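Acyl carrier protein (Streptomyces thermospinosisporus), 86 aa
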Amino acid sequence: MITTEVTFDELAALMKKAAGITVDPQELKQSAESPFDSFGLDSLGLLGIVGELENRYGRSLPPDSERCKTPQEFLDLVNSTLKAGA
């Protein structure tokens, strides 16, 4: 069985790639309940991250994924979706 899970490290890398925002993965993890905009990530940047993940895993993420407010909420939704389809 393949276990697919997006980590805070990967999310930080995706924030850099898709939105040009550099965030320390440890800071992201420690502030997982902080809103994305506190890291400088807006809805368009989050949409870019959703697109990157959809391309990477070859499947669509729920429409709610681009409306997530915090890194923890986003990772919970993305990871539960990926696990359900694994």
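The helical segments are 8-19, 25-30, 43-57, 71-84. The chain has a mean pLDDT of 92. ok done for today
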